[in-house]
Amino acid sequence: MELWMTEHRSFVFETFIQTRSSVVLTQCRFHTHFNVGQHGAILSRNTILKWVKSFRTTGSVRPGTTRGELQKTSKEFDKLWRPAHVAHALQMSERSVCQILHFDLHYHPYRVMVVQEVLRDDTVLITSDEVHFHLTGSVNKQNFWYWSANNPQELHQRPLHCECERVTVWCRMAQFGIIGPYFFMEGRRTVTVNSQCYMAMLCKFLLPELQRCRIDLTTVWFQQDGATCHTSRESMALLRKHFPGHLISKHGDVEWPP
């Protein structure tokens, strides 16, 4: 009978990760946890490193894991997507599994996102949105990102109730090119985008541009987000008239993807 069991190997590997690869701390915690006396069996440095290497090589803390068993275990792990399942299979704690995934394997958790796949032979998909540009330099934090090794802690001061000059720009992208930009203005004054302004843009700018580009509207999928001006009763009626059955939007034929 082997002196060291799977329970001992699991504890050693978990502790080795928790102590950031400290062999001495792993030995101390092992002897304390299993109440190893002064004349008890000694867990050597080589044994600890051997077990750690074995797990990283085979993915198992069980002694004597063969290549066939490893292949079988790997196929089973392909179906495991929660650390709790992996922890149960390896007889380890879920916390240790998460630490191994993060610190040792440099893995990060990702959520599955449901999106609309566009294939080469699919019909045309056009999507658009509008954005405000403040002429004073104020930044819309939802539309701008900073990429840096450290947080730049940038500060942008702006009045609480901003009445400064700005422009509202709309643009649409599709596989045949870009349509726009379109500025929501009356004379030289920027106007708030409401349902009436949005429909006017569709009728006076977008639809004529699609006709100029000789785009068959029956092959076009129109995509927009859930802004109030986009999804008002009047706007949706106009879009359904020109893109019947091909409207990707909140309350549309296909829901706007997350």
Automatic annotation (TrEMBL):
Recorded source organism is Cryptotermes secundus
Q: Can you say what this protein is called? A: Uncharacterized protein
A GO molecular function term, named singly, is: nucleic acid binding
The record ties this protein, via PANTHER family, to:
HTH PSQ-TYPE DOMAIN-CONTAINING PROTEIN, TRANSPOSABLE ELEMENT TC3 TRANSPOSASE-LIKE PROTEIN
Q: Which InterPro entries match?
A: RNaseH_sf
